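Case study B.
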Amino acid sequence: MADFEPKIIVFACNWCTYAAIDLAGTSRLSYPPNVRVIRVMCSGRVDPQFVLEAFADGADGVIVAGCHPPADCHYIEGNYKAYRRFELLKRILESFGIEKERFRLEWISAAEASKWVQVVNEMVSDLRRIGALKPKLEVD
Amino acid sequence: MAEKPKIAWYWCASCGGCEESLVDLAERLLTLFETVEIVFCPVAMDFKKEDVEKLPDNSIAVTFINGGIRLKEHEEMVKLLRRKSKIVVAYGACSAWGGIPGLANLYTLDEILERKYLEVPTIDNPKEFLPAKKTVVSIPEVNMKFELELTEPLPVLRPLDKVVDVDYYIPGCPPTPDVFWNALQTLLGNNLPPRGAVLGALWKSLCDECPLNETKPEKLLVKEFRRVDRTTPEPNKCLLAQGFICMGPVTRGGCKALCIKSNMPCTGCFGILEGVVDYGGKAISYIGSILDYSPMQEEEIRKAYDKIPDWVGVIYRYTLPASKLRHKVGLEFPKLIKEMVEL
Ligand code: SF4
Ligand code: SF4
Ligand code: FES
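Model:
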C-alpha cells in the first residue's frame, strides 16, 4: 500500500491544541499533510456522534485534542467529559472492528507544537501500516 | 357507501411481537375491521404474493411493514408493496432502525449460521446440516424426493428506509396499542403530517413524561454503573441517578414510561429523537458526562465501564443498523451457504 494517504480528522480545542497547531506553523515545523483540523471551543464539545460520522464518511483516523487535565480546560470539566466519553467510545469502536490505532485523545497545550507534530507523525505511520478503513459494504 | 380504504401488513425479520401488538388492539379491532379492508396480511390471512401483484399500483391506502430487511424475499416484497401503496409505514423498532435482530450486524453470516446451527446448547444437529439455497429431501421408503428452495440471506440487516421510501414511522418494540391506535387515526384522517414523521408518540424524550423525573437531580453524577440482574432498583427514584443505565434521556417519549413504572430502566425501544444522527453516540455523550471521576482516575473509570459486559447491546439495542456505522467494518462474504444439501 505504498501510495495510501490516510485521512485524519482532528477535533482541536480552540484554547490549546489549535494554538499549538498554529505555533507549529509559525515555527516552521513540518509534519505530514494528512490531517484535516476542525476547531471546536473545547474537547467537551466533541459529541461522540462527530467521531462516528467521521469514520462512516471516510476518515481513516480521528484525533480529539484538548487542554491538559486537571486544571487547564477553560470550561473547567470539558476535558473530563471528553476523557470519559472517549473511554466508552473506544470500546464501542472496537466492537465495530475499528482498530484502536485509529482513534486518539491527546492533551496538547498551546506551547506543545512539537507534541502535535509527534502525534501526527505517529498516527500517519500507524495508519499507513494498518491501511484504509472501509466502513461500507456493497449493500450500503 | 364509499369504498373502504385498503390496508396491507407485512412482516420481515421480526420476532412476532409486532403482530401480537395488532391483536392487542382488542375490542378496537372490531372498529378497525369496520373501517378498512385488509388485502394482505400473511400472519393472519391466506393471501399470496400473486394477490398483491394483481392489485393496481397505488391502490393500497396504507401498508404497515414490521421487521428489518434481512432476506432477498423481504427486499422483493417491500419493493412490490411500495409500488402498490400510497403510504408505507415502518412499524416498530426493527423496521424503523433494525431493532434487536440488527445487533447481528456485528457478525458475519457465517458466524451467525455456525452459532445458530452448530453451537448453541439447545441445538441438536449431529450431522451438522446448515441451510442451503436448495434442500433435497429423499424418503427412500416411499421412493419420493422433495425439493425446497430457500430465499437468500443478505449480508447485513437494513432498516426499511434503506431499501424503499418510507412515509411514516411508528415506534416501539412493539408499539403499544395506544400508540398504534393514535397513529391509525392520523393515517386514516384528512390531516396527514409531513412525510418522515414519527406517528403516535411524543416529540420530547422519555424523561419528559417519566413520573420519576422530579427525583432526577439537577447535576446527576454516579460513581458506579449497576445492573438490574444484580441489584434491584429502589422504587420511586430516578434509575439513572441510582447508576442503572436508563436510556430515557435519549429515547423518544410516548410509551407512558412503561418500563420505569415496572421499576426497570428504559432500554430505548421508542428510538431516536429529532436531531440525533447516531443514537448510541448520543448515549455515550450523556453516560460519559455522569461518571464522577477525573481523567487522573483512569483505573476507576475503566472499572466502572467493565461492570457492563456488552455496551453495544446497551446503547444500540434497537438502532445499530440505523447508526452511522450500520455494521461491523469489513464483514466478509459468507462461505458456508451451499448451493444444495441433500437430507
Ligand atoms: S433517566 Fe430514566 S428513570 Fe430517570 S427520569 Fe429519565 S426515564 Fe425516568
Ligand atoms: S420505557 Fe423505554 S424500553 Fe420501555 S416501553 Fe418505553 S421506550 Fe420502550
Ligand atoms: S477548553 Fe480546551 S479542553 Fe476544554
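Chain B touches chain A at residues 106, 154-156, 158, 162, 276-278, 280-282, 284-285, 287-289, 291, 293-296, 301-302, 305, 311-312, 315, 323-331 (CB under 8 Å). The remaining cases will be described in the next quarterly update.
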